[in-house]
Amino acid sequence: MVLEFRLPDIGEGMVEAEVVKWYVQEGDTIEEDQPMVELMTDKANVVIPSPRKGVVLKRLGREGEVVKVGSVLIVIGDPGEASATAAPVEAPVSAPAVQAGPPPTPMADVSEAPIPSGRVLATPATRRVARELGVDLRQVPPTGPHGRVTKEDVIRFVEVQRAPTIPPASVEEPVAPEVRPPAGLEERIPLRGLRRVIARRMVQSKHTAAHFTYVEEVDMTELVRLRDRMKPIAEAQGVRLTYLPFIIKAVIIGLKRFPIVNASLDDEKEEIVLKKYYHIGIAVQTDQGLTVPVIHDADKRSLLDLAREVERLATAAREGRLVLHEARGSTFTITSLGKLGGLLATPIINYPEVAILGVHKIEPRPVVRDGEIVIRSMMNISLSFDHRVVDGAVGAEFTQVVREHLENPHLLFLQM
Fold this sequence. Notes:
The protein is α+β, with helices and mostly antiparallel strands. It has helices at 107-112, 124-133, 151-162, 193-208, 221-236, 244-257, 303-318, 392-407, 410-415; strands at 3-6, 16-22, 29-30, 35-40, 45-49, 54-59, 66-68, 72-77, 211-219, 263-266, 271-274, 280-282, 284-285, 290-291, 294-295, 332-336, 355-369, 372-386. The strands form five sheets. A six-stranded mixed sheet has the order 9-18-17-16-12-15. A four-stranded antiparallel sheet has the order 1-8-6-3, with no helix packed on it. Strand 13 and strand 14 (290-291) form a beta hairpin. Helix 6 (244-257) packs across helix 7. The protein is globular, with a radius of gyration of 25 Å.
């Protein structure tokens, strides 16, 4: 029996993934759940396991190619079955990873191009973006399938329009010769893999969500003391206890009080989707770039269980061992650089979420308490919200709930 395994629907608007590495060759015998291929999604590297035992009859998609969701990824047959018995499979619609589409048309060509007759092919979300940016879709060069205009086409068109133009020098003015750097002083690195995914998602988020950032300082003194007391207990159970599990618990309390922050905006249907589950994304820095593994149902986990899961997912992300479900479905994201966290930031929302929390370093600072200057362990937090969904007052109130529970950590155990 021949099985044509197709790239599964990864969800959250994903339509394609990049083939990073194959773990099997044509002719190999594989077991059920054996790793077959590593793919790059919008959020992380994921490993696709084999759905059954059998023989690899055919692989489709070279390493570095982009494979569409729904296209055949691999053909598996019964042991002893010859590869010739496999029915011909159409190659997936793919493109080299270094090519994200044809280059944008120069502005002069765009303005002089004839406007095509008939209705422009574009999704409702693309049309909405075009309306918001004041773009006539008939003037946008399409790069999507069957001549479809994509949101990226609209954004690229606007960027070309807004690019500054340099007037030509007059005849009387000498034109300075072009200065090129000596050989060896520049290096060009192909934008591919996770770095390319990050670039696309950050642009999509900035051009779609209406960001505003709210910064608050938090007195972490009591939480520092509590963690110091709990660390030996956690270590005795083989758990490394950081501040992140406490922060996750405080965030979940805030999300339950303000459900609009645990939401997303369906651009096509123009509906706000309130999530009644709490899947917390944790931004992790890897050698390839930033990855966001997800702690599912974080509200149902104990403090030590959260600590275990944070460490397990962070290690898997850095080693490129995340499986598919561990990198999808987040409803809210936390990003932290630990001791390198600085004082404040303007974190970019993990689209299509509507908020993100940036955690900064904890350091002793002089503060005023009861009219006296004292030294306390202080930390800043920076939260970015999508103003299309979250009003400024709501974002501020949510932040204050998080701050209150970090400054009074005993409250974390009274409500969870």
